Amino acid sequence: MTTTTVDGRLDLPRRSGDRPRTREHNPHQQLSQIAPPDLQEELWSRMTTLDGVLLGRSGVSLPDTRALHLRPTLATGPGEAYLAGTEFAHLHGHGDGSLHMCLPNDVVAQTVQQGWAELHPMARQGFLPGTLVMVYGPRDHEELDIIWRLVRISHRFARGSATA
Fold first, then answer.
1. pLDDT grade for 25, boundaries at 50, 70 and 90
2. Which of 10, 28, 37, 65 could form a disulfide linkage to 164, CB 3.0–4.6 angstroms apart?
3. Which residues, including other chains, have CB under 8 Å from residue 12's CB and lie 6 or more apart?
């Protein structure tokens, strides 16, 4: 279960097992421990319910990637809350199942430390903001709930509210 502490920090459990293999360059993809397609679809279904989002193709990823773009009038977050334009998160195709999203720096630190995410290679090299991470695809419903929590944090970050 994911909870928020009194000081507003996200309290993530440790992700079980080893990290999945990922590509170290663009396109940044998850190569092992691929999320089952039904969990990917359940996650996407949840993602489409976020307030003020426009669904569409990603401006920065492969053609089978589905992206969330925030309506411009609601896009009041900092520049590092977006991948491109008002795109704040996207879900890769069924052969991958991971997500790229922007998260507040303190949330990035915890998601990476607890094994849920890794920095995008271009962020590691300093070419993109350190808020851009790959969140690994969910392997079960418990992981789906945690990842859904991270997507909602990304959405709030893009709207200008970075609290967990």
1. confident
2. 10
3. 2, 110, 111, 114, 116, 146
DSSP 81: G
pLDDT tens, position by position, 97-147: 999 999 999 999 999 999 999 999 999 999 999 999 999 999 999 999 999
Query: Which amino acid, residue 31?
Result: L
Choices 3.40.50.720, 3.40.50.1010, 3.90.1150.30, 3.30.1330.60: CATH for 36-159: 3.90.1150.30
The 10 Å Cβ neighbour count of residue 16 is 10
Q: What is the pTM of this model?
A: 0.92
Element (H, E) at 124: helix 121-124
Structure tokens at 132: 């851009």
Domain ranges of the chain: 36-159
Question: What distance in Å separates the CA atoms of residue 116 and residue 111, rounded to the nearest whole number?
Answer: 5
> How confident is residue 51, by pLDDT bands cut at 50, 70 and 90?
very high
Angle at 108 between CA 102 and CA 109, to 5 degrees: 165
What element of type H or E holds 110?
Answer: helix 105-113
